[in-house]
């Protein structure tokens, strides 16, 4: 009997997780949905959303898929673990904890061996980058990365999607755009040159810091140099990334193409777009070319659906690995 909890079930990621569990025929005997008091009682796919509070019954789950924000994860994930579940968490709450594996299913599933009940899913923009870069790192070693992201609004949750739609609708109808609430500036017909927020005294955003830290943890190499600019663009779903990768050993563009053509979870294209990647579970890589300014650097363009591979798909893939090898459900 496998019991699964989905925490944050009404959110952009939570709803995608529910679709994926169904699409992939995940072997769950029971799926229980949780959210805050705001949407408790809502029906999704014939299931009533339960309120996550002190009265909730949290014992006896095998797996808890969390996408309810870092605060809720910090408060409630340990309670599910105490009740016997392995928690796969989409938030940033535990990613930096050295005892918590940070796992991309195609890249470092070996890290699952040592979990203590908590497994972290990487940030969406890091996730797709790792699927595209791990094969290159294994073959030639990555010395330095220069990345610019073009992140969609769904990466900030359902309120941000509504904000883009409301501003775009107003603008197209000649009405004054509503004031921004999720972002510091209007996002419709605009570009925001800093995705994420700035911690006191830091000139990089938290999104940029996540990519730096998480890349080194997942690739298990603290020596990788990373320069990153995270940008928010008026796209509903799908993050894009312009990547310059400098390797330690020489690697031609043809060799990189061959590596990626055979890499799990990657589809090679000419110029992939977020619209074409929407609803897909793979990471799309295109524009692989020699950087003519450096003998060991290549340029590439990496696109993926942030709600799927960037969050829900990877979480469900980790859950599938755990269920396939039930020994992995046991805490190390
Ligand atoms: N969006 C992405 O592409 C993406 C990618 C990777 C990781 N993540 C992470 O995944 C998490 C969710 O993101 P999202 O985009 O799905 O956000 P979202 O659309 O705003 O949804 C948030 C969900 O969390 C629930 N929630 C909020 N506070 C809660 C609480 N105290 N107790 C129980 N449930 C609570 C909400 O329930 P109510 O309906 O009751 O408000 C809703 O179901 C975040 O940590 C985010 O950083 C997101």
Mean pLDDT: 97
Estimated radius of gyration: 20 Å
* Bound heterogens, unique: NADP nicotinamide-adenine-dinucleotide phosphate
Structural class: alpha/beta
Per DSSP, the total helix count is 8
Specify the biggest β-sheet: 6 strands, parallel
SSE topology string: EHEEEEEHEEHEHHEEHEHEEH
Distance between the termini: 21 Å
Strand order, main sheet: write it out.
5-2-1-6-7-8
Shape type: globular
Number of extended strands? 14
Unreliable runs: none
Q: Helicity range of the residues?
A: 25-40%
Portion in beta strands = 15-25%
What does this structure look like?
With 332 residues, the chain is of the alpha/beta class. Helices cover 30% and strands 22% of the residues. The chain contains eight helices and 14 strands. Helix 1 (12-23) packs across helix 8 and helix 3 (124-140) runs parallel beside helix 5 (206-219). The two termini are 21 Å apart. NADP nicotinamide-adenine-dinucleotide phosphate (NAP) binds next to helix 1, helix 2, helix 4 and helix 8. NADP nicotinamide-adenine-dinucleotide phosphate binds at residues 8-14, 35-36, 38-39, 52, 67-70, 72, 90-91, 123-124, 154-155, 157-159, 306-307, 310-311.
């Amino acid at each position: 009997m496998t019991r699964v909890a989905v925490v944050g079930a009404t959110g952009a990621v939570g709803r995608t997780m529910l679709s994926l569990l169904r699409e992939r025929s995940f072997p769950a005997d029971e799926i229980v949905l949780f959210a805050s008091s705001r949407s408790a009682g809502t029906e999704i796919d014939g299931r009533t959303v339960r309120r996550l509070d002190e009265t909730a019954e949290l014992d006896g789950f095998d797996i808890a898929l969390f996408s309810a924000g870092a605060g809720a994860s910090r408060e409630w994930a340990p309670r599910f673990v105490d009740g016997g579940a392995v928690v796969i968490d989409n938030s940033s709450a535990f990613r930096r904890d050295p005892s918590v594996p940070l796992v991309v299913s195609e890249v470092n599933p070996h890290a699952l061996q040592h979990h203590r009940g908590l497994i972290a899913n990487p940030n969406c923009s890091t996730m797709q980058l790792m699927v595209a870069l791990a094969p290159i790192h294994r073959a030639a070693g990555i010395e330095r990365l220069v990345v610019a992201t073009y992140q969609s609004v769904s990466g900030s949750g359902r309120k941000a999607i509504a904000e883009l739609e409301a501003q775009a609708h107003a603008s197209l109808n000649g009405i004054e755009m509503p004031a921004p609430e999720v972002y510091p500036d209007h996002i419709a017909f605009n570009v925001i040159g800093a995705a994420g927020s700035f911690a006191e005294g830091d000139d990089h955003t938290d999104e940029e810091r996540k990519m730096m830290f998480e890349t080194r943890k997942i690739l298990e190499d603290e020596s990788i140099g990373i320069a990153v600019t995270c940008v928010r663009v008026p796209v509903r779903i799908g993050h894009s990334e312009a990547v310059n990768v400098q390797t330690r050993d020489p690697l031609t563009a043809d060799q990189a193409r061959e590596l990626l053509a055979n890499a799990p979870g990657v589809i090679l294209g000419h110029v992939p777009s977020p619209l074409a990647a929407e609803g897909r579970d793979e990471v799309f890589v295109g524009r692989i070319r020699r950087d003519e300014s450096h003998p060991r650097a290549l340029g590439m363009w990496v696109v993926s659906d942030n709600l799927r591979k960037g969050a829900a798909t990877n979480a469900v893939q980790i859950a599938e690995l755990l269920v396939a090898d039930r020994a992995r459900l046991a805490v190390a």
